[in-house]
Amino acid sequence: MKPLSGIYRIALKLLMNDKSKFTALLVGITFAVFLMVMMMSMFSGILARSCAPVYNIGAKIWVMDPAVNNTNSSIPMPDYILSASRSIPGVKYAVPLYFGSALIKLRDGTYQAATVVGLDDATLFGRPEMIEGKIEDIFAENAFLVVKDAEFPKLKNPKIGTEFEINDNRATVVGIARAASSGLFGVPTLYTTYNRAITYIPSARFTTSYVLIEPKSEADIVGIQQAIAKLGYEALTREQFVRKVSNFYTFKTGVGMNIMMMTAISFVVGLSISGQTFYTFILENIGKFGAMKAIGAKGNELIAMILAQAFVTSLIGYGLGVGAASTFIIIAKWRIPDYAAQLTYPTLGLALVMVMIIAGFSSYIGVRKVLQIQPFDIFRG
Amino acid sequence: MGEAAIIKASNLVKWFGEGEARTVAVKQVSFEASYGEMLYIVGPSGSGKTTLLSIISGILRPNEGSVTVENQDIWRMNDDELADLRLNKIGFVFQDYHLFPRLTTVENVAIPLILKKMEWNGAMKLAREYLDIVGLKDRAELQPVKLSGGEQQRVAIARAIAGKPDILIFDEPTASLDGDTGRKIVEFVKSNILNEKRAIIIVTHDSRIYEYADRIMKMEDGRIVGYETNHFNEK
Which residue in the set A7, A293, A379 is minimally distant from B114, CB to CB? Predict the structure, then answer.
C-alpha cells in the first residue's frame, strides 16, 4: 500500500496533535451527524410504520376513495365497486378488505383501542403469518387472530382461547400471528373475516374499506387503474399507495416539516461548530501557513492540506455520529418496543452529503484565509 | 564584490499605497551578494530592510527593477516557479521562527523535504541529520515549545538548510534571543552553515553581531547609504 503522501501526513498531524481543536471539531461534527441521522431515522421509521398495513396485506393494487390519504382513514365504498373491479379486463381476482378501529373490552373490564382487519371470507387474501394456531380457525365462531407485535402486551398478552368483547360481541383468540411491520398509532391489531368484522363493528351504509386486486400481469395495471378511475375511485399500486401515505405524513401533518426543520437545525449546528472551530484553527496557524508559503509551498499544496484536514475530520465525525445513532436506536428498540426509527441507506447517504457540505464549508473558509496570507506578512510580523 | 554574484538586484523600487497615501519603501536600490559571503542589511526601523529582503527572496514583487538569482530573473517567473525557486534555492529563518508547535522538531525540519516530495521516512532520516548538524539530535521528538529560544532558532536553521539552499535569509535572527545566545547562533552559522557555495543575508539592527559580517550594507529611508567591510573576517 502506498504510504500517505507526506504533505497530507503533516496536515493531519497539525490538526490531530492540536487535541482540543480536534476534539471540538469531532464533537461538533459527531453531534451534528448524530442529530441528523436520528431525525431522519425517526422520520423513516414513522413513514415505514404509517405504511405498515400496505406492506402487511401485500396486495398489488389497492382500490380506494380518492380522498383517502392514509391507511387508517379509509372511506367505505359501495359494494358495486367490488363487482365492477372483478369485471375489469386484466383482473385476476378482486377481494374486499375491511380496515377499521374498534374498542375492545378486556376481561378485567378495561378498554383498549385496536385496529381490526377483516379479510375476504373466501380467500383470506392478506392473511398474516401464523405463530400459534391455524389460519382456518378464523372461520370458527367469534374467532379473531391477534398480531404479536410491540402492542401485543396492551391486550394483556392474550393466549389462544382468551376472550374479550368487541361492541358487546364475544371475541375469542384462535391464533397468534406475526406481521412484517408494526403500525404507527400504538394500538394492537386483530384479524378476522370480512363478514365478522362488518357485523361486530358498527359501520356506515357502505362497508368496504378497500378492494384488493391481483392483476393478471403487470401490463394490465394501467388499464385497471383507468377503469377504476372511470368509476370515480382510485386504484394505486402498492408503491403508489406507500408514496401517497408518505407524502401525506411528510407534507400535510407537520411531522415531516418539523423533522426536516430539526434536521436542518442539526445541520446548521454542525456547520457552525465545525466552521468556527476550523476557522480558529486556521487563524492560530496562519503565520505557519504563511511561513510554509515562504519556504516554497504552492497554493494547491496548502489547499490539499486544508481539504485533507477538513474531510478526514468530517469522515471520522460521520463514522462516530452514525455509530452513536445506531447504538442509540438499538438500545431504544431493545428498551422501548414502540420506538419507531430505522437507519436506512438513503439516510446514511443524505447524512454523508450534509457532512461533506460541512467539510466543504469549513475548508472553504480555511482555504480563503490561507490563500490570502502573503509570505511578506510573515516578515513584517 | 568581485567574486561571483549569486544575487544581483538592480534599481529596485517598491511602494505601497496609491496617491497621497503612497509610501516608497525601497528607492532605486542596487546591490549584489556573492557566494561564500555573509552580508548584513542593517538600518533603523522603516528603512526598507525587510521589504528589500522580501523582494530579493521572491516573496514581494517590486514595482521597478529586477532581481537575478544565479542569472535567472526571478520576477519574470510565475507564482509556482517562484515557489519552486524559494523551495530549492532559498532558505528562510524567520524572526519568530514560525515552527509548527504541534509537530515535533524533526517533523518541522523535514517540511522543506516533504515539500520536495521526499518520502516520509527518508525525509525524517535526513531531517535528523540536519538536527545533528545544529546540535539538537537528542531533541528530535520534542515539540518546539519545549525548547529554549536558542534551540528553536537552531531548529529553524536546520529547517532552512534542509532543502540545501544556495541562499540563506535571516530576518532579525537575534531579536528574540539574549545577547550571548544571539552571538553564539550567528557564530555557529558563520562557522558551520556558510560555505563557498552559499550566501547568507542577514537583516538585523543588532550591532552586537556585526563582527561576524563579511560586509554590512546600511539602509536609510529606502536607500543604501553605505557599505562597511569587516576586515577581521576577510578570507
Answer: A7
- pTM (2 d.p.): 0.77
Of A164, A151, A160, residue with least CA distance to A109: A164
CB-CB under 8 Å, B54 with A376: yes
B77 in contact with chain A, both atoms CB, cutoff 8 A: no
Q: Which amino acid is at A48?
A: A
Could you tell me where the DSSP H helices lie in chain A?
Answer: 6-16, 19-50, 52-57, 80-86, 194-200, 221-230, 238-251, 255-284, 286-295, 299-335, 345-372, 375-380
Which helix (H) or strand (E) segment is B154 a member of? helix B149-162
The per-residue pLDDT for range B171-218, each reduced to its tens digit, is 888 877 777 888 888 888 888 788 888 899 999 888 888 888 999 999
- Give the pLDDT of residue B235: 44
Burial of B78 (C-beta count, 10 Å sphere; 0-12/13-18/19+): exposed
pLDDT tens-digit series, residues A148-197: 988 888 889 999 999 999 988 899 999 999 886 666 777 899 999 999 99
Whole-number Å distance between alpha carbons of B62 and B52 = 9
- Provide the shortest C-alpha distance from residue B234 to chain A (in Å): 30
Q: Check CB contact under 8 Å for A13 and B103.
A: yes
Taking the CA of residue A53 and the nearest CA in chain B, the distance in Å comes to: 59
Q: Do A376 and B112 touch (CB under 8 A)?
A: no
Which of A4, A291, A296 is facing B94, going by the closest CB pair? Answer: A291
Cα A337 from Cα A327, distance rounded (Å): 15
- What is the phi-psi region of residue B58: left when phi exceeds 0, alpha when psi lies from -120 to 50, beta otherwise? left
- Pairing label, strands A111-119, A91-105: antiparallel
B83 touches chain A (CB under 8 A): yes
The helix or strand, by DSSP H or E, that contains position B113, with its residue range, turns out to be: helix B105-115
Can you tell me the distance from the alpha carbon of B73 to that of A212, in angstroms, rounded to the nearest whole number?
85
Distances (CA, A) of B126 to A54, A309, B120, B151, B160: 69, 26, 10, 19, 13
Measure A270 CA to nearest chain B CA, in Å.
Answer: 25
User: In 3D, which of A199, A138, A144, A135 has the Cα closest to residue A172?
Assistant: A144
To which H or E segment does residue B126 belong? Answer: helix B120-133
